Amino acid sequence: MTGSGVRVSVFGKTDLGLTRDHNEDTFLVADLSTGNASLQPSVREHEVGVRGSLFMVADGMGGAAAGEIASAMATDLIFRHLSTTWTTDEEATATRFAFRMREAVELANAEIYGYAREHPDLRGMGTTVTAAGVYGEDLYLTQIGDSRGYLVRRGEAIQLTKDQSLMQRLVDAGELTEEEAEQSERRNIILQALGPDPRVKVDLTHQTLRRDDTLIICSDGLSGLVRREEFGRMVTEHPDLAELCSALIDLANERGGPDNITVVAARFEGDALPEPDEAEGVGYQVYDLPEPDTEPRPEPAPVEATPEPVPALPADPDPAAGRSRGLLILAAVFALLALLLTLLL
User: Fold this and answer.
1) What CATH number belongs to 7-283+317-344?
2) Can you tell me the distance from the alpha carbon of 81 to that of 75, in angstroms, rounded to the nearest whole number?
3) In 3, 35, 104, 307, which residue has its Cα 20 to 30 A from 112's Cα atom?
4) What is the pTM of this model?
5) Interval 235-253: pLDDT, tens
């Protein structure tokens, strides 16, 4: 692939919210062809190059500084792996790009898991991650946890990702409606995160882009307060992406802002993208990778990437805070076991 003919405009923003005392969210936008990860003008408006583009949101957990460290490590490690291994890969194909994205998430999990084991004060730390990679007209998403990706096409927002959460599992089993799940007090219980376990199952999905599509990826501090259909309306009302990100965060804060709020918005244009076709399906579409014959999937350890030095933690972190969301994952496991027993009896 030479010049893709696909142009992307992108912006991202994160906010503390109204009740948290520190921000555990992280986002990253990058032009993988130039290796530039920033919100500089050359990244905010660029043509998707020969190695594609990358957008990520991560929502950390673990209390004290652990969540901040986990989400920062996740975005850094995923970007670093793609900007070194993928950009020098002799096989520059869409399938290989998708493989490298999944591989990067798996390696990031192994690194965070190992780092937490070496630092007892950080044990149990973890993070969600939704990473969106664009290669030509192909959009790939790798998902861990309950941050989300939406595609807005012709004013309608469609969710591209599926939450790895207890509520989503109950909805899939027919035990709850989506409306009931959104109101449940257990809606924040997630089944998987980067860091707590040595291995993860990466959810890899695919969507073909069309002209004027807008991608939104966000933490649950936004998706938990703004309904899917409202994303479509907001994209229509705010064509400027910086204004769109600010408006979405303001809306979440108007509704209480109980969590950190992070959003990345990207719009795709260019003659290489066809106009949308009403007959095309849009939504959650699993992408099955062919397993390579010569290169096995990465083992969780050892890993090649090494995290940047991180600031020292406070001398006496609150252990209860550090266990809070980790306990939610454990609770989810027990809840699922109870559900299975109920269905069997």
Assistant:
1) 3.60.40.10
2) 10
3) 35
4) 0.85
5) 999 999 999 999 999 999 9
